[in-house]
Every structure is written in C-alpha cells, then in structure tokens.
Amino acid sequence: MTDRWARAEERFRQREADRRYRRDDRAWANDPRARKSTGSNPDAWADYDDDTTVIPRYTDDEPFYEGPALYDPAKDDDGYDAADDFDADYDDELDEPEPPKRGKQAVRANSRAGGRGKPDRPAKSSRGKRSRAASRKAAERKRRRRNMWVIAGVLVVLIVGAAGFAVKQFAESFGPPADYAGPGGPLVVVQVHPGDTATQIADSMLERGVVKSSSAFYQAAMRNSNITSVQPGYYAIPSESPAAEAVTTLVGKSSRVGNLVVAEGRLLHDQHDVQTGAKTEGLYTKISAASCVGMASQQKCVSAEQLAAAGASTDLVSLGVPSWAVESVRAAPDRSRQLDGLFAAGTWDFDPSGTPQQILRQLISQSAASYEQTGLLQSGAETKLTPYQTLIAASLVEREASPEDRAKVARVILNRLKVNQPLQFDSTVNYALDTTELATTDDDRATKTPWNTYAMPGLPANPIAAPSLDSLRAMEKPEPGDWLYFVTIDSKGTTLFTESYAEHLRNIRKAQESGILDSGR
Predict the structure, then answer these.
(1) Nearest CA-CA partner of 458 in 408, 414, 398, 493
(2) CA 280 to CA 498: how far, in whole Å?
C-alpha cells in the first residue's frame, strides 16, 4: 500500500511540473531569436538568461493497459485499488480552475503555458492499467506467502520427527534393549551363513522371532566367548527366548540340525554284510536322522520312506538334477535308484524344516556344484566320456580302488571300454543285492542286471555309489598305462595290475590263497 501512495504522489508532482514548465512550440517558432539561432549564428541565445529548471518527465514502467479499470473483490469496497482513488482525488483538484492572475504574473504564466490552458489530464483508462498490474502483484505476493507457509510447515514436521527419533535413540542408549523374559516357545530353525558376523546372526535371530531385539542378542553374544566358534549351518533355537539363553543354545552342540556327512561309496538304500549281518545305512536313512528337530516326543523328522518316495519322482528339475545328467537319469531302469551318485561324499548342510523334495534338491544342487568345480564338464575331451558317464566310472573307482590306486583303476576302466571288454567288477554285482560281501558267487555274477558288468560290456546304467572328489579327479585324469586287469590279493588292500591275462590268473590264485575271495554265502 505504501508503494501505491508513493507512485500516486509522484505522478501528481509530474503533472504539476508539466503544466508549469510546458513550452509553446508555436510561440517558439515565431520568436526572432529562434530564427537567428539557426544557420550561421547558433549563439543568438547565448545572452538569454533563463532561470527555468527542466524537470525530467516521469515514465511509468508498468505495462500499458487501455481498457477500463478491472474490478477486484480483494480490494476496497468499490472493487478498485485505493491508490486509484487517491489519483482520482488529485485529478479532481487539478480540474478546478485556478484563480486569475494579474499583471506581469499573468503574462509570465501565459507565456510559460505556451498560450494553452492547463495541461490535459491522463485518460481514465490509465487507472485500469495500474489496477490490473497491482492486482497481479497482490496475487503474486499472496501465492508467495502461501508457499512459504507450506515450506515452513514441512520443515517443522521434518525437524520435529528427526528430533523425536534422536531423543528415542538417545534414551535407548541409556536403557537395556528390548528382551524376552522367557521361557522360550517352539523351536525354529535359524541359518548361519558362511562369513556371518555377530551382527548378522543377531538380525537373523530377530527375523526368525527368536529374540525381541537384535541389540539384546548382540550384547549377549559379546559376553559369550564361544560365539566365535559357531560354524555355518542350521540351528534349532526356541522362539521368544531371552537373548542370553538364545546365545547359549546357539553355541551348544545339540542345537545343530540338518548337518549331513556323506561317506565315500555310500548308496541310497541300506545294505547288510553277509559275514557279520551289520547294516550299512543308506543316504536316505542318514538324511532322515539329520532332519530331526526337537527332543523325545516333540521331535520331528522327515522319514527315509518320505525321502525315497520324493527321490523316485519323475520331476527331475524340482529334485535339482543338473542339466548334464537329466537325460540319463530319466532313462534309469529303476526309479528308486535314479539319484544314486548325485550326492557327493563330504559334509553338507540342509534346512530340515523343508519338504522331502526341497531337502533332496538342496543336497543335490550343492553336490553338482562341487562336481563341476573339479573340471567334470571339460574332462570328456581326453576320456571321451560324458559328464554323467564320468560320474558312473568315478563311482566304480570309489568302490574298487584304495586311495593310492584310484588313478590306475581309472585307467583300467578306460582301457577296457576302448576295446569293448566287460569290466567284470564285483561291486557292480553287489549293487543290486541287499546283502553284500567282497567276493561274489557264480550265480550272482551270472545274474543279468542293468548294473552287472560280468553279464554285459560297458558301464552300469547309473552310478553305484557316492564318489569322492578324489575318485572323480582320478577318472578325469587317469594315470597313463596299458593295464587291463587288477585284483586285490589280501585284506590289507594290496592290489596288482597287469595287461596280461595269464599274469592276472596267477594274481587271482594269490588272492584265493589269502582267503579274501572266499564267500560267506
């Protein structure tokens, strides 16, 4: 409002200046001194003494608007700007006639006015121009004020929220973290990943509902020196446990679950020794025992029968069978044995809370990855075997050779396959039997099965055991040699190799003399 009054006053002063000091162009043109100042005598007015002060004409920078004044309800009661009302009052004063001047004063006034009357008032349309410009400025100021209030409100909310969070964190730093009072609830399975820190384990415990806050578990873990001995794997911990108890349970040996040790040469199904009657547990039995969670009547396990049923499924992809083995496994003559050899010897961890199918998939996927790391997929360039055939041959090496003779037995296999000579391995005869022994009978060797290498040339239909990675590497890179025969001649594992069949017969007699080939049937 102050700016409008100032502009109105300035315009009034400008009008007064124009009226008092306006030059009459016609009188000026008729004056003899004006004619003398042109041409050769430009200094004709040099002796003229004029005390008139020229005031610069005021120019309004606002855009010119020729229309009538616009109505704005945000202004005065009559809808027009107060500054325009002020201008109108001054205009009315200018319209009033001045009192007549006398004598020299009248002559001087008339001369300075240029023979004309009072100056013309600005058109009324100029008020509309000023009114619209003022309206735009008022709206702009209103919008800026509204935006400033919005921004200020957002800043206040952010500052208050940040201050509240900081106060909460500060208060918690002086108090104990949230924790359960106990006792714990039902067991839940928590995984500790390779390389997990105490902080990451605490987060897993919180996510699985074991502890009430990760801070409580972390602080309890830092007070227990055994936390550094925790190995990657799966652990059964009571839910909603006090943090200290959760840490104690974690570091205890009894909490480990889903930990499976696959022995070298292990089969899927149980077998019994002919001589002693002792049972050799198969992988399904081993996996079932490792899947148990809980104690006594509350213990939950996946049974060997459930695992066997899942392992016989034709949905090989869901079982985790690798792509390089799918075609051969699909052609397996016995669905109950189709997964033999796909479980690598070693120590494995699986989630015991999963379904039988999920458990098998996890173990087979881990085993396949370990097989491929040995160079299995590239080994066929030298041996001329597919990856699955290499796995079958490696299972034969596992069952037939002692550790120091693995590479030699691998060479015997390749040499016999090359000349299409039957392998004649007793381990392939025993594979189909529930009761086994080192020696085999004539009837057993004569029984034709998809695995009996006495009754047919070539490799068995599928692996006959879980091969170790060493046996797999021996098959991938066998020791150079021309051997076609080998036989173990004593209980110490002494094995003799030869390329001569006659020499091989002599070695067999040595084995018979030691009694190692005697059958207990």
Answers:
(1) 414
(2) 32
